[in-house]
Every structure is written in C-alpha cells, then in structure tokens.
Amino acid sequence: MERAPEHAAAAERRPGEADIALELLVHGVGGTTPEDMLGDPRTERITGDDTAAVFRRADDTDAESRPDDYRDRPVPEAYVWCNLTSGNGARALWLLLLPFMVVNLAHWMRPSARGRVRTVRLYGLLVRLAGLSLTVLLVAAACEVALDLTAWQCAGTRACADRHSWLGFLSPEVSNNGWWSPPGRRLALAALVPLALTGLLWYLSHRTWSAYESQEPRVGGERPDEETDRTALGRPGFWYGRRLVARLRAAHTAAGLLTVAAAVGLPAARFDHRSGGPIALDALGRLLEAALLAAAAVVIWVVCRRGRSENRLDQHLDDRLVRRLPLGCLALLALTLGYAAWARPGWVSSGRLPGDATFGALAFVQGLLVIVLGVIAHALHRTHPDARAAIRGLGGPAVAMLACALGGVMSGGVAQRVADWLDGTHVSIPGPPVLLTWQASVIPPLLLLVLLLCGGLGRRTWRLARAERAAVERDHRGEPEDSTRSRRIARTRAMATLTDRGPLLVAVVSTTTLLLGAGALVGALATDRTPAAATEPAPAFVQGAAETAQALGSWLIGLGFILFVTWGRRAYKDASARRTIGILWDVGTFWPRAAHPFAPPCYAERAVPDLTWRMATWTEATGGRLVLSGHSQGSVLAAAAAWQLKPSVRKRVALLTYGSPLERLYGRWFPAHFGPAALSALHHDVDCWRNLHRPTDPIGGPVLLPGECGPEVDRDALKDPLAYGRTEAHPLPAPILGHSDYQADPAFAEERERLLARLRATSIPTARTERSPRDP
C-alpha cells in the first residue's frame, strides 16, 4: 500500500519550516532489497510500482507527522531500481544488441567543447551514420545466411540440398522444378528471415520506447543556472529522448527493409538487364532500383536532419513522412518480392549471390567514419585539454571502432559457421563472401593479442602487489605481522588498479582491429580481382595457416555466441555474476539512445525523473533537509538527478557518494558530461558533498576536484579491512570489503552527520527566499 504522509503533515506547519531531514538511499549495480538497504525486515512502499519504487521502514511511514522524533537522525528512504536492468533470462537476448549499445556509447564519449556547436553536431552526425551502417550490416548478414547461403547456394546445388532434406522443396533438381524452385521465388521466401529480424528489432525498440522514453521529467518554474550548468545532464530535455528515438527507429527500420529489398530485387534486375527478356520486366527492374536509391536517400536525410533536443522538453513527434517511412519501405519490399517471384526462364543460381561488394562497402564506410570521427575528437580535445580523459579524448572513436568490429566479427563468424554447417566438405557451395571469410580469419590473431596484453597487465599487477605489500605493512606497523593477510590485502589493492588500465586495453584493441580490418578488406579485394587460373598456389604452410585461421575463427564465434548468451542469462539471474560484469552493462544502458534506436533501453530515463520528482515534491511539501546517498552506479543516478533539480532545491540537498565511479569511469570516458568542470559545478550547486572511497575498490574512487575543492569533497581513503588482526572490537578476522558495505564503516555515519549538521546550519525556509547565500 502506498502512502504519502508528508503532504498532510506539511499542511499543519508553516510553509518552508525545515524541521526534519530525509536520507534518500540509492543502491548500485548489484541490486538489493529495501529490507537490506534499510536494515529492517518490515518495509512499506511509499511511492512507485513493481519496477522502481521508494520504500520506508514501517515505523517511519508517518515520520512527517512526528518531526520531534527525528530531530537527531534522518528519515531513511530507499529507492530500488534494480528491476529496470534485471529480469528473467529472456532479457539476456539484449546482449545480442551489444554492437548497437557500444556505438551509442561513442556518442556520449566526445571531449568537452564549449562553444563549438557545429563541431559537436558533426560528431553526433558521424556516430549516427556509424549506427545506421551497423543496422544495415546486421540485416545484410541475415540476408547472407538466409538468401545467399541457404536459398541461393545450398538449395540450388543438389549435393547440398540432398544433405538437408528440409530444403528439398526449394531445389529445382530435387523437387523436379517445383513452384518454389525458381531462384527469385526461393529468394522471396528466404527474405522472411531478415524481414522477421527487422520486425523484431522494431518491436523491441517500440516496446521499450513506450516504457522508458515516455517518462516525462519534472520541468517548470526555474531553469538551471546557465553559469553553473557545465554539463548537458542539467538540461530539461536531456532525459526525454522520445522524439529522436522515434525518428531513428523509423529510419533504421526502413533501412533494414530496404536492405532486404535490395538483396532480393537486385539479382533479378541484373538478370533482366542482361538476358534481353521482356521489356516490361527490365523497365520495372530499373524503376525499382531508382526507388530503392531514392528511399535510401530519404533514410540518410532523416538520420542526418536533426540530433537531440536537450534545451527544452520536446513532446512532439515528427511529421507523417518520417512516421510512415517504414510503411512505404515495406510496400516497396512487397513490390520487390512480387517482382523477383516472376518466372524467368533460363535463370539459375550459380556461384555466390551478386552483392558481395555490399560488405566491402560497409567495411570501408565504417573505417572512414571512425577515422574522421577521430580527427574531430582530437580537434575538440585540443580545444579544452583534459589530462584525465581516456585515450586523450579519442575514447569515442575507439569505442565506435569496437562496435563496428563486433558487428563485423558477428557477421563474418555467423556466416562462416552456417556455411560450414550447410556444407562441411567445402566443395558443394562457394560459401560466404570472401570478405566475411577474411573477417572470421582475423579473430584468432586478435584474441592472441588480447591474451598477450592481459598477460602483460597480469605481470604488472603482480609487481604492484609486491610493492603494495610493503605499504600494507607500513600502514599496520606495530601490529602482529601476518604475511598471508598482508599478501591478500596487497593483492586486492593491486587488482583494483586494473580498472585504470582500461583505456590502454581499448586503445590497443581498437587500433589493432582497424589495421586488421583494413588488411582483411585489401586481402578480400585482391582475392576477388585475381583470376583463380592466374594465381600461383600458395606455399603449403601459408595455405594451412589461412585455413586454420578460418576454421578457428568460425568455431570461436560459435563458442563465443554460446558463452555470450549463457553469461548474459546468468548475469540477469545470479547476483554474483551480475556484480562481476554488471557495471559494464549498466554504464552502457545508463545513457539515452542518441545514436541507435535498437540499443537496449536507457534505465536512467525512468530512474532520474523518479529521483527528481521525489526530491522536489518532498522538499517543497516539508521544507526539510535532504541527504542524497548513492552507492556505485547509484551515485551517478544521484548526481544526474541533482542536476535536474531547480537551483533553489539543490541548495537544500547534500550529496553523499561512496564507491562512486563518477570520476574514475564516467569522468575519464565521458569528459563532456562528467569532466572536471561538470563535477566542480555539481559541488558548487549542491549545499555540500562528501565522497568515500577505498584503495581496494575496483570501481569507486576519489572525485579529484581541482584546487581546494578536492579535499573538501574527498575523504582520505578508508581503511580496508577495518582491522588488520583480531581486536576486541573485531574478535574474528575482518573481511576485505572492496566495493561493498560502505555503511559498515564508522566513517559513513560520521560523514552523514556532518552533512546534516551543515544543512541544519545553512538551511533557509523556501517560503521566505528562493536562493541561498551560496547562489551566484
């Protein structure tokens, strides 16, 4: 049962009388229960639903009517949002959308660039075009598997069709030229597979769009201060991307449908142009080609026309042309299917399906986009250099390269694996396009490089652990020495530093991927253009290595797919696995869908408005003080929600963060939104802010604000474990807490009381004035 007692209680007091304090707890990525957060088995939901809600202890539900009972302590509330990112095992299929999520991350990783609006817009445009290429690549890969390998090659070859009886009705030799045996009809039937994939992506995007992008933020009254608004996260429309996602969904769905139409219609049109057949079919083919080009131009125009609207709450959708674009492309696809299914005497399927150049063109365009994106990111970074920015401001282009590589590897690996399954002898059918085979071949050397790099990082960590052991012994000088205990603490500290080596790993892998991808493209072009008869046989060693790489790449992608889904399912159902990989997933889905509409939904578009509404309504109704307490990813949500508050409300809020990745992850990888200027502005806007961290924490760290602000926000690193050996207070060995249980440290209660005392001393009733002395 939901309750909202503060409104009735507020009516009995003078408006703005600040005589009660609220502590709003926001948990991290691991997920938890309100009972654990509040330390009480009896809790009640105050507001919210089964997806995300605010809870209180049963004894505190009427706290606003008993303010005298809470003069020395705050009223604890827990905001539980774990159901926004967790669920049943079926949601692990979202991991198949990983390339889309990664390219969407690249949009938010641009360097800080105040005043260079056009350059920032160009950066966003290039990322959106890279996302569009990924959609076309995924659908083209489905067309390659269903249309080329299955319907065109295997069904058109007796040896392959005999091996797979379910293809017999499509084979002209097995079915004695049945109705489905002509190549055009086979292609039209197989087109249902990529069409179903496109429809599934549209459905998932539309369903999550209705649930997530439709949560309106709290807007009105007061705009954030322009002088202190150093991040876009404080803009009214930042967490409301309804219009952009709808527009991009229409464009990407249309692009997928056009890809299927091109895969079906262009081979038939090419045959009609060469065969000298009926003039009507030839004319219709040319008309369809022109229509496909015109529709593709419209899709690109829709993607390029406009980016996000953050300065205002854009509640309108686009015009009918954009909204009906998928329907128009679906009608064009239906016309193309009918055109391809027309009987054509003399048309037989041989070799590969025409259109191999599609994958080469996509790879070239993606590489070019990444290079240009890198040039722009470098120019932005030079404008406002940030020494802590990941890869010197090139994090966005590097991550975009990884997204394209993921798409290419998935496409090439799946196509090679299906070809091996259809024709294990490699003699019945030609197999996938040469470029996809080359892309599957680069997987083993890339994995070898990653293993070598991980080995180097492991060696460095081992050395650091030896150095940390001496530091641990110095920290506990005078206590009985325990070498095993010291090694364990030192090893935990050293392992925690691996997070800071992430930029190096991403930089090396993305650069190597770009070079290997370029090599694969050049090799594929050289192979296609060199006649087989004029090619001298390669040395046996080289040929064997190439075949081994292709086979390993094919099997590795199959194994990787299985592990991918298995670990993804476990991450959603097993709390321990979720803590291991959940931070990466929650960082990716924290950001709105600005570059790709088929990326997993942004949970912050529900969580941030929830927190903003709760803080604003409670402070307005009671005039009380509020401590916003966030752990891990909860601290990021807390900061984003604080930026969304009116300036007068922010001055009544104290921020307590612990195990926070605000600077260590977000500040380095997203400098435009969480860089030093943005975090300094947050420190200035809220009444006070304290941050707790441990040297054993692999995720959280200090905020590292410049100047005197740093020590004012960051407390000295907490001891972990709380006791080195057995003491009267800790008769049993104290655990190494790392990223968890910050509230168990006495420093947590000290800092919370310090923040409450600061609020109590500086709070001014909101009914008498709307600005505090710290307002500029």
Automatic annotation (TrEMBL):
UniProt-recorded name of the protein: Integral membrane protein
SUPFAM superfamilies, alphabetized: alpha/beta-Hydrolases (SSF53474)
Chain ranges passing through the membrane: 92-110, 122-142, 187-204, 250-271, 283-304, 325-342, 362-381, 393-415, 435-457, 504-526, 549-568
Lineage: Bacteria, Bacillati, Actinomycetota, Actinomycetes, Kitasatosporales
Domain of life: Bacteria
Keyword vocabulary terms for this entry: Membrane, Transmembrane, Transmembrane helix
Keyword Transmembrane helix: yes
